[in-house]
Amino acid sequence: VQHLALVARDDQTIGPVSLYMLSILRSGERKSTIFRMLEKGFKLRQDQLVKEFKARMTNPNQSANVLPESGRMPRILFEDVTTEALSLDISQGIKSVLLSSSEGAAIFGGIGMRGDALMRAMAFLNKA
Q1: Are 66 and 93 in contact (CB under 8 A)?
Q2: In whole angstroms, what is the distance from residue 74 CA to residue 56 CA?
Q3: What is the chain's Cα-based Rg?
Q4: How far apart are the first and last CA of the chain?
Q5: How much is the pTM?
Q6: What pLDDT sits at residue 111?
Q7: Which terminal residue of the chain has fewer beta carbons within 10 Å of its beta carbon, N or C?
Q8: By percentage, how much of the chain surpasses pLDDT 70?
Q9: Are 96 and 86 a contacting pair, CB within 8 Å?
Q10: Per-residue pLDDT tens for 9-25?
Q11: Is the pLDDT of residue 3 over 60?
């Protein structure tokens, strides 16, 4: 829904609706269970979008418009992705996505996430 609504935080600051969540739990405190529950609805929606996309590809005259402008397979779930690839996919595909990981280092600990690159990634994710 991020691309569908803007929120005014004050008279001058208007931006997209975003939801940031961070859970810090110790081993054995059901992180994976909670993560799977959170992700379940997104996986179901992505599966539905892919099914509709494939049906549309086999029958292009179908009235439902489920194809992104780029004609790329719709994707709303991201885990192991660079900020450049995420930016491209958001600009050419579905505008509301979930970037998640059960391990924060999978997103912010890569080789390309050092120094200025990490700050640029954080700034991009804040504005995306």
Answers
A1: no
A2: 12
A3: 17
A4: 13
A5: 0.66
A6: 57
A7: N
A8: 77
A9: no
A10: 888 888 777 777 777 77
A11: yes
Domain assignments of the chain as residue spans, ordered by start: 18-127
Instruction: Name the residue with tokens 């494939």.
Output: 54
Fill in the amino acid letter for 76: I
pLDDT of the residue at 112: 60
**C-beta separation of 5 from 16 below 8 A:** yes
Total length of the chain = 128
76-84 long-range contacts (CB < 8 A, ≥24 apart) are 76/42, 76/45, 76/46, 76/49, 77/39, 77/42, 77/43, 77/46, 79/106, 79/107, 80/106, 82/110, 82/112, 83/120, 83/121, 83/124, 83/125
Whether pLDDT at 75 is above 60? yes
Structure tokens at 47: 């599966």
Q: Which amino acid is at 42?
A: F
Cβ contact 101:86 at 8 Å: no
Residue 105 in tokens: 């280092």
H or E stretch covering 2: none
